[in-house]
Amino acid sequence: MTTTKLKWLLVGLALIGGIALWLMYAPNQGAKWQSYITAGERAYQQADYAEAEKQFEAALKEAQAFGPDDVRLAASLNNLALLYQAQGRYAEAEPLHQRALAIREKALGPDHPDVSNSLNNLGELYYDQGRYAEAEPLFKRGLALLENALGREHPHAAYLLNNLARLYEAQGKYAEAEPLFQRALTIRQKVLGPEHPNVATSLNNLAVLYKAQGRYTEAEPLHQRALAIREEALGPEHPNVAQSLNNLAGLYHDQGRYAEAEPLYQRALAILEKALGPEHPDVATSLNNLATLYQAQGKYAEAEPLHQRALAILEKALGPEHPLVAGSLENYADLLRKTGRDAEAKNMDSRAKAIRAKHARENP
Questions:
Q1: What is the C-alpha to C-alpha distance for residues 63 and 56, in angstroms, rounded to an integer?
Q2: Gap between the Cα atoms of 82 and 16, Å rounded
Q3: Cα separation of 356 and 321, whole Å?
Q4: Measuring CA to CA, which residue among 344, 194, 254 is closest to residue 1?
Q5: How many C-alpha atoms does 229 have within 13 Å on its Cβ side?
Q6: In angstroms, rounded to a whole number, what is the distance separating the alpha carbons of residues 162 and 187?
Q7: Domains assigned to the chain
C-alpha cells in the first residue's frame, strides 16, 4: 500500500551512526584532516549534503598524503561513501566502501574490530538496495569478528545483531529476526543499563517487528517504554523522541486509532522542524506520515499541502531522482486519484516508475 512507503525507518539515523562509530576509532592525528571530517559530519547531520561532500572530499584529499594504507584514508573513503549512500548514489558509494574495507584489512589485519565497521557499512549499502544475499555474509562476518575480539556481550555486537535482524525482517523472516533483536536488547540492558537510549532503540526495533506481524498488544508497551526512556535521557525535543512518537503513532494509525495517532504525529513534526530545520528530509518523512493519516480519514484538503511540502523538501535535499522522491510521488498520486485527478496522478506515477527503473538499472 503506497501510504506506508515513507514511514520512518526503524533504526533511525543509521548512516550518522556509521560515521560516529568510525570517528570513535580514528587516530587522534592530522588536525587539518580531522577538522574536515568534523565539519563534514556536522553538515551531514543538517542535511547540507553539498557542504558535507565538499568537506569529506577535502578530508579525502588530505588523507591521500598519509599513504595508501593509512586508516585515515579508509575513514575518509567511508564517510564519503556514507554520504553518497544517503543520497541514493549507490554506484558511487560501493567502490569507496570496498576500498575502505581493503585498507583496513591490510593495515589492521582481517580480524581487527575496526574492520567490522566497513563490513557493516558495505552490508548496509547492499541492504538499502535490496541486495540481501550480499549483505547477509557481511553482517555475519562483522558480528563474528566483534564477538571474537570484544566478546559476545559488547555493545558493538548488539549493533551488528540489530542490522542482521533488520535484514531478516525485511525478507519476512520474522522467526529469525526476533531472537536477534531480543539478544541485542538483552546485551544493551545488561551492559548499558535499562534506561540507556540504546536500550530504547532495541525496544523500538522489537516493537516494529511485532507491529509488522500484527502483534499490536505486544508492540505498544515497548514503544511506550522506548518513548519514556528517550524523553528522560535525551530531553523531550530530541529527534529520537520524534522517532518514538512517530512509530507509536504508526501503530495507532494501523489500528484505526486515528484520534490517538494525530497528536503524536503532530508533536513529532514540531520536534523535527525545531531540531533539524524545516527543510530536513526527516521532516518530509513526518509530513508524509501525517498526510497519510489525514488521507485515511478522507481529510484530503488537509493532507494535500503536507504531501506537496514533503515532496518539495525531498527533491531539494536529495535530488529529483532519489528513491524517497519516488515514494513521495506515489503517495501524492494516491491522494490525487482519490480526489478524481487521474491525469495528474498518472503523471506522478510515471515519474516515480522512471526513478525506480533508473535505480534498478544502476543497482541490479
A1: 10
A2: 8
A3: 8
A4: 254
A5: 23
A6: 11
A7: 12-108 (1.25.40.10), 287-364 (1.25.40.10)
What SS3 class is residue 257? coil
Distances (CA, A) of 43 to 25, 35, 46, 286: 21, 12, 5, 21
Q: Are 290 and 253 in contact (CB under 8 A)?
A: no
Neighbours of 27 (CB within 10 A): 12
Model-wide pTM > 0.85: no
Q: Which tens digit of pLDDT belongs to each residue from 114-165?
A: 899 999 999 999 998 889 999 999 999 999 999 999 999 998 999 999 999 9
Find all residues with CB under 8 Å of 103, minimum gap 6, and list them: 68, 69, 70, 71, 73, 74, 77
Contact 202, 188 (CB under 8 A): yes
Cα–Cα distance for residue pair 144/126, rounded to 1 Å: 19
* Span 291-327, pLDDT tens digits: 999 999 999 999 999 999 999 999 998 889 888 899 9
Q: Nearest 5 degrees, angle CA 323-CA 324-CA 325?
A: 90
CB 62 within 8 A of CB 32: yes
